[in-house]
Design goal:
The complex is a heterodimer of chains A (271) and B (309). Chain A is mostly helical. Chain A is 70% helix and 2% strand. Chain A has 10 helices and 2 strands, in the order ααββαααααααα. The radius of gyration of chain A is 22 Å and the shape is globular. The two termini of chain B are 43 Å apart. Chain B contains 11 helices and 14 strands. Chain B folds into 2 domains: 221 residues, Rossmann fold, CATH 3.40.50.300; 58 residues, Alpha-Beta Plaits, CATH 3.30.70. In chain B, helix 3 runs parallel beside helix 5. The chains are: A mainly alpha (271), B alpha/beta (309). At the A-B interface, helix 1 and helix 4 of A face helix 2 and helix 3 of B.
């Protein structure tokens, strides 16, 4: 070989001229496709679970419980079940996608791209929102066949559905970044998200609880999501919808700030 | 401007057993259009260095510039210039080969990339697998997809981390033809490999790492020139005497040792005969990169011992 190697000039093949800022849209679509390809498990199954709750509890309690004057138990239960499905599935989407990609190792394909922390955030939270709302809509359509609900304040209904799904998508993102094993994720899912949604007044009005439990319930952020959502149906709720909006909105902003920070520093993904 | 500039890069990990130094003040530059080899034994820090370069890990100290763009502060610029083929055989089980490549293009903001994707598939012998799900592909095929994924955005710099580990001869041929073609077109290539014959054949320049430090950084031709002398190689059916074994490289029946002249050869063979052994298939060959590699690594080892002693 010569003492001097002549290196070729800059690449002859010009790099493509892309719109880098749009990269997040691809990640968003990929995340939607990911759950859509297994929609039997990610959408149909949770819809069926919720419908079973309605059938069983509605059948047993409809004739015995009247939550408030003129509101049957089944009618009361529907918004709670819809919201519970929205929340649990929004959380499940971002958290399980991240933990799977981390364990399979294919998160590297995203880590190698110029996507910013905002891109990651929008894609993971956006796709969780879509999954949560898709399941919620499914539950709503089927349960509406049993008791057509009214819509006293549809704006509130939509607002809480979006905000709740968004917040749970953000929390799922944080949990997905933090967890290193499926085990740890199961702890989150089964010991935090599940009980907190269950005890947030899905199946009962917190007014029916004794003083102590009523106070405890007011510290559960899930309670405000479900109570505010229910206000959208009945125009009445356990606490003012504005209070609920304040609590949920503030939690959303704080959780988002934390998630964005963790993504920016590459918490547990860029060691 | 250098294609890649490593500037005093250090990386330490906090482990339960104390601080572990994976990289220690690694500094060197890779020029535009170069085919550069990064060699070293397992655990030398090759993959750590590439991880820091690719933004998969953070340097504890120092910085890396990719065509002038800092991989930390200007990561978007740096990453769009890099095409990294990871060492682990990872894949997304939800998608087909074409879907995976389209998605990867999209992450870089590239739409309608099918013409280039088709060319990549063709060059890597993947055309008839384009619509197969990644789960159904063999290991070698998955490796090809990893290469294609790294190239969807036509990066100026291609980084391959042990791309031929556990790969059959055919793929190695296809892969090197393709990478050599891209290098001729002006793409810079950074390669880590355990196959020293590949490095010798392909790389203009080579850096050797050991325990996180650069222990050699030279043109391949200059490194080979260091391998003065020859290698005596023979097969043996018994145990080599201890004093000979200390100077030899033994692989099963094959014994190889550095020799400088005919007298050297005679002494060694005489020693074998005196031990009551019969050397078979004797040959003398020119020293190659593997011999240089081993002597560099041993020299570092000796220096360390002297330093500690």
């Amino acid at each position: 070989m010569n003492s001097k190697v002549d290196f070729a000039p800059a690449p002859l093949m010009p790099p493509l001229q892309p719109v880098y800022a749009m990269g997040w849209l691809t990640l968003f679509k990929k995340e939607v496709l990911r759950f859509w390809k297994v929609s039997f498990q990610t959408i149909a199954a949770p819809v069926l679970t919720s419908v079973l709750y309605l059938l069983v509890f509605g059948h047993v309690l409809d004739s015995r419980v009247e939550v408030s004057p003129g509101v049957s138990y089944t009618a009361f239960l529907i918004p709670g079940l819809v919201m519970m499905s929205v929340l649990q599935n929004a959380f499940a989407n971002s958290s399980s996608s991240l933990i799977q990609s981390k364990i399979m190792g294919n998160l590297v394909f995203i880590l190698l791209t110029p996507l910013s922390h905002w891109g990651w955030f929008l894609a993971y939270v956006g796709s969780s929102l879509v999954r949560g709302l898709a399941v919620g809509l499914g539950v709503f359509i089927i349960t509406a066949l049993f008791a057509m609900p009214h819509f006293e304040a549809p704006i509130f209904m939509l607002l809480f559905a979006f905000l709740g799904a968004g917040l749970m998508g953000v929390l799922g993102l944080i949990a997905g970044l933090w967890a290193e094993k499926f085990d740890q994720m199961a702890v989150f899912q089964n010991f935090i998200v599940m009980p907190m949604t269950f005890l947030a007044g899905v199946f009962y009005s917190v007014h029916s609880l004794s003083g102590f439990w009523q106070v405890i319930s007011h510290f559960n952020p899930f309670f405000y999501m479900i109570d505010g959502f229910r206000y959208g149906f009945f125009g009445s709720s356990d606490v003012s919808p504005w209070l609920s909006l304040g609590v949920v909105g503030t939690t959303f902003v704080l959780a988002s700030a934390l998630a964005l920070h963790l993504l920016k520093i590459g918490y547990k993904i860029r060691n | 401007m250098s294609a890649i500039s490593f500037q005093s890069v250090s990386k330490t990990y906090d482990t339960p057993r104390g601080l572990l130094t994976a990289l220690s003040h690694v500094s060197f530059d890779i020029q535009e259009g170069e085919f550069f080899g990064l060699l070293g034994p397992n655990g030398a820090g090759k993959t750590t260095l590439i991880s820091v370069l690719a933004g998969l890990a953070r340097a504890t100290h120092g910085r890396i510039l990719v065509q002038g763009a800092d991989v930390q502060t200007d990561y978007a610029q740096a990453r769009r210039r890099l095409g990294v083929v990871p060492q682990e055989l990872v894949f997304d089980p939800f998608f087909s080969v074409r879907e995976a490549l389209r998605i990867q293009s999209g992450y870089f903001g590239i739409k309608n990339n099918d013409a280039w994707i088709d060319e990549l598939l063709e060059s890597l012998g993947l055309t008839d697998k384009a619509n197969a799900n990644l789960r159904q592909l063999s290991g070698g095929m998955k490796r090809r997809v990893l290469v294609a994924q790294a190239l969807v955005h036509r990066p100026a710099i291609i980084v391959l981390d042990e791309p031929t580990a556990g790969v059959d001869v055919e793929l190695r041929q296809t892969l090197w033809q393709f990478i050599a073609k891209l290098n001729k077109q002006g793409h810079t290539v950074l390669l880590t490999t355990h196959y020293l014959d590949e490095a010798e054949a392909l790389c203009h320049r080579i850096a050797m790492l050991k325990q996180g430090e650069v222990v050699a950084l030279e043109r391949t031709s200059d490194l080979l020139a260091q391998a003065s002398g020859n290698v005596l190689r023979f097969k043996l059916d018994g145990e080599l005497p201890a004093d000979l074994a200390a100077q030899a490289r033994v692989t099963g029946r094959i014994v190889q040792m550095q020799v400088h002249n005919a007298a050297d050869i005679e002494t060694r063979l005489a020693a074998v005969r005196e031990a009551g052994l019969v050397a078979e298939d004797i040959e003398v060959r020119k020293a190659d990169l593997e011999d240089v590699f081993i002597s560099v690594m041993n020299a570092v080892q000796r220096k360390k011992h002297e330093f500690q002693g």
